[in-house]
Amino acid sequence: MKYKTAKEGGTIIPKVAAWATKHNVGFPYEMKKINLTAEGHLSILVKYAPRPIFRTYHVHLFMNFEDVLVEYWLYKYEKKLREPLWIQIVGSYAVQPIMRNYSRRKIRRAIHAAMAEKGWAPDGTIAEVQTGQDGTVEKPPAFELTGSILVQIMDTISVLDSDPAKCLELGREIVRCVEAKQSMNAGQR
């Protein structure tokens, strides 16, 4: 589904389209699915795009009509442009908010832990200090992680019931896939 501006018969107002073009921010339809190979991947869907992407929720609710909230969200996104990697985790609305939020937090922590193991900060930048378990300094990663990751939790209960090691392995696989996609995109330039 391609988002067109209101002038083109679509839903996105021209102000948002112009801002997105100026700052190289994309729309959710640009994200491509990442196939996970780990056993029992906790019923989640992972998508990646090599550039920052607006949240689907914001596109549908705030960016398709003139409103004060459009200015607010564009301001918030402009501040977020400093981060090279945007991670969005959405949960099922079929469960209580506390369960949805806890499952999202569990997946986010797993991704951040996997990024830290490889030398990245939670925002995708290269972490300051890299030390191994024996106190030696390890080689930092050669590049920052960039783009947008969308993790959609389909079965909240399976995430809540999973052990932290399984979540960490899932986080590692997501980071490996994003790293591979990013290096593949860099090779095409």
Task: Kindly name the structural category.
Answer: alpha+beta
CATH topology: Ribosomal Protein S5, domain 2
Strand order of the largest sheet: 1-2-4-3
Assembly form of the protein: single chain
Beta content: 5-15%
CATH class: Alpha Beta
Bulk shape: globular
- Bin the helical content: 40-55%
* Total beta strands: 4
Report the biggest beta sheet as strand number plus sense, adding barrel if it closes: 4 strands, mixed
Mean pLDDT: 85
Tally of individual helices: 6
CATH architecture: 2-Layer Sandwich
Query: What number of structural domains do the residues give?
Result: 1
Q: End-to-end span in angstroms?
A: 26 Å
What are the segments in which pLDDT stays under 50 over at least 5 consecutive residues?
none
SSE topology:
Elements: H1 14-23, E1 32-34, E2 44-49, H2 56-61, H3 68-80, E3 85-90, H4 97-118, E4 147-153, H5 156-161, H6 164-188
Parallel strand pairs: 3-4
Antiparallel strand pairs: 1-2, 2-4
Helix pairs in contact: 4-6
Task: Describe the overall structure.
The chain has 189 residues and is α+β, with helices and mostly antiparallel strands. The chain has one domain: Ribosomal Protein S5, domain 2 (2-Layer Sandwich), CATH 3.30.230.10. It contains 6 helices and 4 strands. It has a 4-stranded mixed sheet with strand order 1-2-4-3, with helices on one face. α4 links the parallel β3 and β4. The model has no long low-confidence stretch (mean pLDDT 85).
What is the structure about, briefly put?
The protein is built from six helices and four strands; from the N terminus they run H-E-E-H-H-E-H-E-H-H. It has 189 residues and is an alpha+beta fold. It has one domain (26-53, 84-188): 2-Layer Sandwich (Ribosomal Protein S5, domain 2), CATH 3.30.230.10.
